[in-house]
């Protein structure tokens, strides 16, 4: 049985934009484009195959009177003698049809609520390897963590073009990464840095930011080029002034910790002349946001990466953010980057942040082992259970744009 719903006129193949001489040139270059006649023939063949699939019954839902019907219906109408056409309303209200229709009981959609209750012990596997991304969700939005990691739900794999913010950040990251892939680059002069950038920037854009090559995007492309050129030069000057002898981009980190096996990738792991280390996380923008993180001692990503470095070197590294769009380095470290004014933070200590992270992890684990998953969203009101105990990290509401499970959280008012 085949049911063809909404049998309205579709889109027919359109003529090519190129002239006949241009089409011949393309053909000579090995680009053979099927003519519109062949494309139409292929489309008609698809319509016919759909109809021929029917063995017992073919039901076609025609458009309302006055609206153009699909060519397939026009073809069938010329072949059939007075095909039966009935109004949908009349068909559904006949006694025979009405008796065969079952009433589906109404069932409300699950309501949005602050806490989910699952069977005690249903979520386990605490020995699995974790990363900053998983821990960030574990601390700040357990429902998102549970669906993405223990439940292993996956969003659609369909490719989607990133927004400008994400795209420019990716391009800037890749530029810095490729520059410092050369182990000798840290000793280069500022003139040579600019020369390298001018030679490689266009290639990087073509490989990973081709949308900036589209018509009408030249101003965006040039603005990115100027910002990134200044940013790379500024970062290089800051690292040389700090006495950097080695810069490792996208440095893989791994260690066994009280939270289990953790792994991650530091944007830049810098070795200083005195033997110390610095972990730098690069962001495209967000000066105010990341300055506040350092002031409030809530820079968990840097603290986790610093702990992985400390585990392997027995010394805590300096941590910093570098804001690519504004060429600004943010750090609480004193006397490391001579051209940078450090951010003052009361009781500043990466080791102390790590202790608070472990306490937060233990608090969340106890809740989850008891079957309690908190849904931390703007639309849900916190309860007494939502208040972190003393000695833990404050809870942040994660950006819902990066939560693929928003529509699984529930609908309507908090219940």
Question: What topology does this entry show?
Answer:
Layout: E1 2-4, H1 20-28, H2 36-52, E2 58-60, H3 71-79, H4 88-93, H5 95-100, E3 115-117, H6 132-140, H7 142-148, H8 164-180, H9 190-208, H10 218-241, E4 244-257, E5 260-272, E6 277-283, H11 287-295, H12 300-313, E7 318-323, E8 328-331, H13 350-369, E9 372-374
Parallel strand pairs: 1-2, 6-7
Antiparallel strand pairs: 3-9, 4-5, 5-6, 7-8
Keywords:
single chain, 415 residues, alpha/beta, five-stranded mixed β-sheet, 9 strands, 40% helix
Folded structure, characterized:
It contains 13 helices and nine strands. By secondary structure, it is α/β, with parallel strands linked by helices. The strands form three sheets. The chain has a five-stranded mixed sheet with strand order 4-5-6-7-8, with helices on both faces. A hairpin with a 4-residue loop joins strand 7 and strand 8.
């Amino acid at each position: 049985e085949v049911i063809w719903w909404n049998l309205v006129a579709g889109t027919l193949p359109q003529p090519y934009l190129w002239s006949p001489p241009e089409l011949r040139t393309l053909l000579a270059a090995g680009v053979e484009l099927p003519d519109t006649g062949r494309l139409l023939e292929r489309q008609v063949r698809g319509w016919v195959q759909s109809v021929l699939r029917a063995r017992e019954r073919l039901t076609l839902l025609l458009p309302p009177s006055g609206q153009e019907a699909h060519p397939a219906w026009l073809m069938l109408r010329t072949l059939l003698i007075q095909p039966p056409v009935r109004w949908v309303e009349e068909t559904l209200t006949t006694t025979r049809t009405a008796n065969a229709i079952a009433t589906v009981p109404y069932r409300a959609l699950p309501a949005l609520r602050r806490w989910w209750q699952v069977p005690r012990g249903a979520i386990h596997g605490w020995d699995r390897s974790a990363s900053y991304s998983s821990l960030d969700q574990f601390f700040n939005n357990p429902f998102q963590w549970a669906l993405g990691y223990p439940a292993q739900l996956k969003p659609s794999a369909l490719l989607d073009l990133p927004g400008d913010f994400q795209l420019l950040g990716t391009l800037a990251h890749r530029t810095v990464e490729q520059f410092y892939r050369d182990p000798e680059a840290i000793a280069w002069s500022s003139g040579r840095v600019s020369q390298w950038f001018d030679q490689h920037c266009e290639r990087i854009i073509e490989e990973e930011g081709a949308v900036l090559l589209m018509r009408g995007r030249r101003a965006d492309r040039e603005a990115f080029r100027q910002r990134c050129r200044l940013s790379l030069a500024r970062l290089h000057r800051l690292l040389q002034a700090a006495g950097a002898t080695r810069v490792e981009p996208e440095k893989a980190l791994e260690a066994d910790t009280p939270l289990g096996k953790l792994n991650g990738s530091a944007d830049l792991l810098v070795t200083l002349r005195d033997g110390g280390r610095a972990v730098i996380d690069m962001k495209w923008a967000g000066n105010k946001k990341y300055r506040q993180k350092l002031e409030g001692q809530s820079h968990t990503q840097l603290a986790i990466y610093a702990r992985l470095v400390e585990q392997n070197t027995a010394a805590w590294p300096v941590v910093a953010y570098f804001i690519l769009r504004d060429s600004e380095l943010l750090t609480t470290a004193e006397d490391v980057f001579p051209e940078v004014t450090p951010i003052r933070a009361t009781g500043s200590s990466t080791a102390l942040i790590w202790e608070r992270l472990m306490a937060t992890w233990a608090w969340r684990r106890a809740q989850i082992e008891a079957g309690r998953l908190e849904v931390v969203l703007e639309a849900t009101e916190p309860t007494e259970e939502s208040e972190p105990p003393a000695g833990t990290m404050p809870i942040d509401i994660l950006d819902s744009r990066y939560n693929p499970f928003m529509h699984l959280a529930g609908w309507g008012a908090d219940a």
